[in-house]
Write a structure and sequence with these properties.
The protein is mostly helical. It is built from five helices and no strands. The protein is globular.
């Protein structure tokens, strides 16, 4: 497999996934994205669909505030349908599984800087899918009030 960068579509497997999305009818694209996510979540052994799952999660994240459009030369050219809300949780779960797999893609980086950048990309996607909650603090009256 060839990898040329740390982006979600910067490898042969994800580029092939993008081609499959481009070849699919609009209504079938959601099923392809869902399938990549579910295969990674349900994998009992090696995460063979991890690169597809990362690419699929990037497509889901692109539909939320803070998400980045997937328009590099290897991402799908075809428009994606609006994804149903349940794909958000599936995308996050798949990314968590990929990030936690010590024998998977996270371990395959030769350059430690690339590994850090790739992990940062996963963390960014997860933060877009489920941004940290900001709690509204309330004012506690002092005893002098």
């Amino acid at each position: 497999m060839g990898t040329w960068g740390t982006g979600p579509f910067d490898n042969d497997t994800a580029a092939d996934f993008a081609d499959a999305l481009d070849d699919a009818e609009l209504g079938a694209r959601e099923a392809l994205v869902r399938g990549a996510l579910v295969r990674t979540i349900d994998a009992a052994g090696p995460l063979w669909a991890a690169d597809e799952a990362v690419a699929a999660a990037a497509l889901v994240a692109a539909q939320f505030p803070g998400g980045e459009a997937v328009g590099n030369f290897c991402g799908p050219e075809a428009a994606m349908p609006p994804f149903p809300a349940d794909l958000r949780a599936l995308a996050d779960e798949a990314l968590a599984r990929v990030a936690d797999d010590e024998d998977g893609p996270a371990s395959g980086w030769v350059d430690p800087a690339d590994a850090r950048q790739w992990r940062a990309m996963l963390a960014h996607l997860r933060a877009v899918l489920y941004p940290p909650l900001s709690l509204a603090l309330f004012e506690v009256p002092s005893q002098n009030d």
